Amino acid sequence: MAETTLMSIAPLFLFLLCCATQTLGITIHSFPNGDVNGIIEAEYQKTVSLVCEVGDMASDEELVWLRNGAVVKLLDENKKGRSSVCVTPLVYEDNDAVFTCHLKTNDSDKASVTLNVTYPPQLSMSEEVQLELDSLLVLQCDMRANPPVSSIVWKLNGSIVDLLEGGFTVTNDGLISQLQVKNVKRHLHEATYQCTAVSPMYGQQTQTFHVTVTEKTVKFPVMPIIAGVVVVCATSLLAIVSRWSKITKCFK
Ligand SMILES: *[C@@H]1O[C@H](CO)[C@@H](O)[C@H](O)[C@H]1NC(C)=O
Ligand SMILES: *[C@@H]1O[C@H](CO)[C@@H](O)[C@H](O)[C@H]1NC(C)=O
Ligand SMILES: *[C@@H]1O[C@H](CO)[C@@H](O)[C@H](O)[C@H]1NC(C)=O
């Protein structure tokens, strides 16, 4: 019973598809497939291939591809009636890129797809950080990801950072998560730090920082500044002196 129902629906479905293609004229097929809104999901560095076809199979009219409104350069043999483009490897800038196809002679009938390039936050490296006592500590984690990360956590020696105890501030602007301390002390701040971002698609990603606090070194920026000031003062003094000799002449 169920089988016969399917059998009778299938030809009808094919019929609808065929008519839809003809009325639409221009269509885009993709690998991987797009969703109902023409959004094609693919991972960073993978490949998306797109094929544009004129509904009327006999047509050898020239097709044009646009990427975000800019014309894509095509080989001559890849223009007539059917045209394919391959986006590989996918880069971050390809996320949200819109590919549009239409006839060269008439752009009133066109088809578009949008790329959704997914990638985890780039948090794999381990960093050595050395800084002097009482200086400013800034640790940064790039939390950009698609889909966006759902949370980000900072840890110190394996435990969640105690903001109050260590005098830390944490800021997130959606791109970068930043942990900051104004005056580092060895007993409070020398440690292994980790930021862990949770991606709904890629799971946890962690970046590690080994922070060591060194003694202050003596710096000598003072001497050149004094020398500079002396030179400037001496020159203006000379200027006044020479002018003074002129001014005083008037009173002779
Ligand atoms: C362009 O295509 C549309 C839809 O297929 C059609 O209605 C229109 O007449 C065409 N315009 C020209 C100038 O061919
Ligand atoms: C892109 O794909 C991700 C993962 O499936 C999804 O969470 C996100 O909503 C998609 N974005 C768009 C604009 O469709
Ligand atoms: C973190 O662990 C290291 C190694 O055990 C230790 O030397 C350091 O003092 C610890 N840092 C803090 C702030 O507790």
List descriptors.
252 residues; alpha+beta; Immunoglobulin-like; 2 domains; five-stranded mixed β-sheet; 4 helices; 16 strands; disordered N terminus; disordered C terminus; binds 2-acetamido-2-deoxy-beta-D-glucopyranose
Give the secondary structure arrangement, pairings included.
Elements: H1 2-24, E1 26-31, E2 39-43, E3 48-54, E4 63-67, E5 70-71, E6 82-87, E7 98-103, E8 110-118, E9 126-132, E10 137-142, E11 151-156, E12 159-160, H2 163-166, E13 168-172, E14 176-181, H3 186-189, E15 191-199, E16 203-214, H4 222-250
Parallel strand pairs: 2-8, 9-16
Antiparallel strand pairs: 1-3, 3-6, 4-5, 4-7, 7-8, 10-14, 11-12, 11-15, 13-14, 15-16
Membrane topology: Single-pass type I membrane protein
Subcellular location: Membrane
Transmembrane segments: 222-242
